[in-house]
Amino acid sequence: MGVLGLTPFIQKTCPEVIQTLPGRFRSLAGKKIVIDGTLITQRFHFAPIPHPHKHVLCWYRLARHLQASNVQVICVFDGRERSAAKEREVERRRRDRMVTAARGVFEIDRLSRLRRLTKSLRAWQVEEGANEATPNLLSLKDLMQKLKAEGVPIPPPPPLRPASPQQICSLGSPDLSTRHLDSALTGWLASIIRMISDAGISSPSSETGHPLVPKDIAQLYVEYQQSVPQIMSLAEAYEREASTIQEASLQDIEEARIDYGLSKSQHGLIMEEGKLWEQLANSEDLQSVQIAVKSLASTLEAKSSVLSESYARRTNPPTSETYEQSRDVLRAMGIPCIEPSGPYEAEALAASLVLNGYADYVASEDTDVLIYEAPLVRNVATGAAPLVLISGSDVRTVLQLDRARFIDFALLLGTDFSQRIKNVGPARALKFIREHGSIERVIEREVQYPPRIPVEEYLQQIALARSVFNTLPPTPDASLLQQGVPDESAVWAILDKFGLHRYVADDWEHTHVLSGNYFADNPAAA
Question: pTM for this one?
Fold first, then answer.
């Protein structure tokens, strides 16, 4: 996560400390960088490339570019021991994965529903074959109007559960779309069908084997209606989960009810799906149905498919094998791979190596590096954008803070080791630290900005977090940091093992797969 809001604050307040390197790795010729191997592996793993070992390919291509630019590399990966100060952040990420998985289930259901609907409507168009209203088209309109007019309450679905890998890989399975139809809902659906039959509404000819019958369209509409109450079910599930965690506050839970529901994109698709059903209900002729299919149903299906694929990637995190395979190809290319000895993070050891003179820059996206006052190179694995160089010591100097106040400024913003105080952004945090000198005095004097948890507990958290940034991990023996000789036969054996030769032969470019975040997409965006 890094320090919340620090990068945009630097860009706005002191842009002079940011150096752009348009030549990318050529600008670092003759230098040595320490790469945060854990973070970069995650970026490669989540890239939208349809290959199970894309991380190996991405590392291979990145290493080739660095070696061609005469840049030496050390890769640092997280060790087995984790800092006790990061337990809260680890728990937060676990809950985030739970919510992401539940959102993925929701999107799988919607995609299945939309696929069946567009298939049925397209087939209906073929059967109708004319632009004038027919009995079959009138039955669709009457059905929709009766479904809307009935207004029978729909029982809420059971709480969403995270998707299993089998579910995520089975987007077309009809079972996924109907698992929420409990007995009460099934009974209501049966009554709707009886009401349709009693009213004399006909179905498309069964002789054609057409999939669109009143029961089908009723079920699809019910599934849409039932999906709306799920908007709050994710937040309620988070509330139950958070209530068992000691540091969860009422404020945390209240904000979770907003933040942990469906994403903005999913909210938007719910509204668009509602417009689709409204348009179908008001269709007067076949052309109206065609418009609904072309302009709404097909577009919605495409959007839902993109979201489903995104959530499928996000619910499949890197495994220990992912990291080991990455280290294997790097070592074969002569790049030393190390990890901390003790409860330290990879970015902390990377900063320690630079500050102790073993390398020139840390290559990462984690702004924690700046609080150690090491020079940070960003955008190493982000498209073809220029590299960005920021020196942590330059940032501290420009902000006119001593070392202790610089650390407290960062902790007040919120880090992996400390909670953010509500309504205290970078500008206000800097003002408070300059005026009061420490977080303890800020809490004492700025009483309108209380921590989210009891003050004593918060200050214990701060004390532990300070020790993290005041303690550099020990560096390993210098012999472990020496550049090795690339073993081309071993490299090719690894590429061959994972079926990657074709991509290498095509000179596939790793920088094309990312555009600024882990996933090159943002399903939470509007």
Answer: 0.68
